[in-house]
């Protein structure tokens, strides 16, 4: 078994490119496992700032075969997301063997996040494994890898200040919004979406003293979410916007609607009945191809707020946090008077630094856990060779026991004595096993060492091949005219 990962994140790509690449992420795992014979398992991590494929490959790989496998998987990703194969191939950083382990453990611990130390990624890693289980695309090796990553993340969270800081994309977004809002106990907040970020947003808002929280969901999940989180559901997003100080949008509905349907991305969709243009109605995902919230809708909502205010001063600014990778909110909203928009690109630019010693402590925990995992994994591969040797030894033991019993039976018969009984056979069996296993010890040590060395050498060659492929992809990205500023 060989671990192979293909990673695209905010560190390598701008968020627009990452959004395009991850559009079809929900189907990629099944497609890769179903169409690539050597791939025994796949787990996909797709978040607001990363798209990663973790593969368990049941085949020997060389540098050339890594290149071939990566290209093949990139073509599948391209087909699902609507980008070209070349774009997909050069978007990925390729890792193999121990580098895969080190990277995943760092990701799960928040060390590779847009906001270093982000704790939400730990839950996203767990959910990625749960989705792979549901889709039946995981494997024993990937199960152990992801479970160990989660345990490592938990230790980083409890043993370092990184975990105590409460850092997250949601927290950073609320920090930025706070400057433009009334006191939290007087802030009226509206959530768009009912996923993990919505739940994290409710907790973060309450921790700051905000109790007026409403939720809207174009998929009809608002009431269930509201009941479980103690907030108020709203049926009309327009009404909620006209009365809101803060909007936290994290549904990603636009990305889900476009998944696997890139040819529909430019269609203009008319609004459903009783909804303003640009606001998603209830006609299902095929109709939900635009932004969840656009500039025209915000203008109408602000006008309604002004009408309600009457002769009072202008309504307070409306702060909108778009935390969805697939942009729930039309960027044109930023041009609407009285509206402030913070999206992921803004958050990335404002992500605070973390003390070097805190990061270093967390990194040491990650490195130690990765080493232990790799030693265990390589040990399991060496065990396969040892098991084969033990199987051969058992065949030899059985043959020698039978031969010894036959000789003793003949000797006893020649002396006119009865054949050996069960106790005699047991004595012979113990003697034979002791001798064979004593002779086997040195061979087991030799075979284990040889198998481990071969596995390490093979993975070193794979790392070199992956590094060459990544350098090639980086050069192609740098040379891409569309990426030049």
From TrEMBL:
<feature type="domain" description="Quinate/shikimate 5-dehydrogenase/glutamyl-tRNA reductase">
    <location>
        <begin position="175"/>
        <end position="254"/>
    </location>
</feature>
<feature type="binding site">
    <location>
        <position position="124"/>
    </location>
    <ligand>
        <name>substrate</name>
    </ligand>
</feature>
<comment type="similarity">
    <text>Belongs to the glutamyl-tRNA reductase family.</text>
</comment>
<keyword id="KW-0560">Oxidoreductase</keyword>
<comment type="function">
    <text>Catalyzes the NADPH-dependent reduction of glutamyl-tRNA(Glu) to glutamate 1-semialdehyde (GSA).</text>
</comment>
<feature type="active site" description="Nucleophile">
    <location>
        <position position="48"/>
    </location>
</feature>
<dbReference type="InterPro" id="IPR036343">
    <property type="entry name" value="GluRdtase_N_sf"/>
</dbReference>
<dbReference type="Pfam" id="PF05201">
    <property type="entry name" value="GlutR_N"/>
</dbReference>
<dbReference type="InterPro" id="IPR036291">
    <property type="entry name" value="NAD(P)-bd_dom_sf"/>
</dbReference>
<protein>
    <recommendedName>
        <fullName>Glutamyl-tRNA reductase</fullName>
        <ecNumber>1.2.1.70</ecNumber>
    </recommendedName>
</protein>
<feature type="binding site">
    <location>
        <begin position="193"/>
        <end position="198"/>
    </location>
    <ligand>
        <name>NADP(+)</name>
    </ligand>
</feature>
<feature type="domain" description="Glutamyl-tRNA reductase N-terminal">
    <location>
        <begin position="7"/>
        <end position="160"/>
    </location>
</feature>
<feature type="binding site">
    <location>
        <begin position="47"/>
        <end position="50"/>
    </location>
    <ligand>
        <name>substrate</name>
    </ligand>
</feature>
<feature type="binding site">
    <location>
        <begin position="118"/>
        <end position="120"/>
    </location>
    <ligand>
        <name>substrate</name>
    </ligand>
</feature>
<comment type="pathway">
    <text>Porphyrin-containing compound metabolism; protoporphyrin-IX biosynthesis; 5-aminolevulinate from L-glutamyl-tRNA(Glu): step 1/2.</text>
</comment>
<dbReference type="GO" id="GO:0008883">
    <property type="term" value="F:glutamyl-tRNA reductase activity"/>
</dbReference>
<dbReference type="InterPro" id="IPR006151">
    <property type="entry name" value="Shikm_DH/Glu-tRNA_Rdtase"/>
</dbReference>
<dbReference type="InterPro" id="IPR015895">
    <property type="entry name" value="4pyrrol_synth_GluRdtase_N"/>
</dbReference>
<keyword id="KW-0627">Porphyrin biosynthesis</keyword>
<keyword id="KW-0521">NADP</keyword>
<comment type="subunit">
    <text>Homodimer.</text>
</comment>
<feature type="site" description="Important for activity">
    <location>
        <position position="103"/>
    </location>
</feature>
<dbReference type="Pfam" id="PF01488">
    <property type="entry name" value="Shikimate_DH"/>
</dbReference>
<dbReference type="InterPro" id="IPR000343">
    <property type="entry name" value="4pyrrol_synth_GluRdtase"/>
</dbReference>
């Amino acid at each position: 078994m060989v671990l192979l990962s293909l990673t695209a994140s905010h560190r390598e790509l701008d968020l627009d490119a990452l959004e395009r690449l991850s559009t079809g992420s929900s189907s990629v795992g099944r497609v890769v496992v179903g169409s690539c014979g050597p791939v025994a398992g796949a787990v996909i991590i797709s978040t607001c700032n990363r798209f990663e494929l973790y593969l368990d490959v049941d085949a020997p790989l060389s540098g050339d075969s890594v290149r071939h496998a990566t290209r093949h998987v990139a073509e599948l990703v391209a087909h699902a997301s609507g980008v070209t194969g070349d774009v997909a191939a050069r978007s990925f950083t390729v890792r193999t063997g121990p580098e895969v382990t080190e990277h995943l453990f760092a990701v799960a611990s928040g060390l590779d996040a847009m906001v270093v130390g982000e704790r939400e990624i730990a839950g996203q890693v767990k959910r990625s494994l749960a989705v792979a289980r549901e889709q039946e695309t995981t494997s024993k090796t990937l199960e152990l890898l992801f479970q160990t990553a989660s345990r490592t993340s938990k230790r980083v969270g409890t043993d370092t200040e990184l975990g105590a800081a409460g850092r997250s994309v949601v927290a950073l977004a609320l920090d930025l919004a706070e400057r433009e809002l009334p006191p939290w106990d007087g802030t009226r907040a509206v959530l768009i979406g009912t996923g993990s970020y919505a739940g994290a947003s409710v907790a973060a808002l309450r921790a700051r003293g905000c109790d007026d929280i409403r939720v809207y969901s174009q998929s009809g999940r608002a009431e269930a979410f509201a009941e479980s989180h103690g907030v108020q559901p709203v049926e009309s997003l327009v009404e909620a916007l006209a009365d809101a100080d803060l909007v936290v949008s994290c549904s990603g509905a636009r990305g889900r609607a476009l998944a696997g349907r890139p040819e529909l991305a430019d269609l203009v969709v008319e609004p459903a009945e009783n909804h303003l243009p640009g606001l998603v109605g209830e006609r299902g995902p095929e109709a939900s191809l635009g932004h969840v919230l656009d500039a025209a809708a915000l203008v109408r909502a602000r006008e309604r707020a002004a009408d309600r205010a009457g002769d009072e001063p202008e309504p307070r600014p409306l702060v909108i946090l778009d935390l969805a990778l697939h942009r729930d909110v039309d960027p044109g909203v930023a041009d609407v008077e009285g509206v402030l928009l913070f999206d992921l690109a803004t958050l990335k630019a404002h992500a605070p630094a973390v003390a070097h010693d805190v990061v270093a402590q967390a990194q040491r925990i990650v490195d130690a856990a990765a080493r232990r995992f790799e030693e265990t994994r390589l040990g399991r591969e060496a065990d396969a060779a040892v098991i084969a040797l033990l199987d051969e030894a058992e065949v030899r033991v059985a043959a020698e026991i039978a031969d010894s019993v036959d000789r003793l039976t003949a000797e006893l018969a020649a002396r006119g004595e009865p054949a050996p009984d069960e106790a005699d056979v047991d004595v012979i069996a113990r003697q034979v096993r002791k001798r064979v296993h004593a002779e086997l010890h040195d061979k087991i040590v030799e075979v284990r060492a040889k198998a481990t060395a071969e596995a390490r050498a093979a993975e070193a060659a794979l790392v070199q091949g992956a590094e060459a492929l990544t350098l090639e992809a980086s050069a192609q990205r740098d040379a891409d005219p569309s990426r030049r500023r």
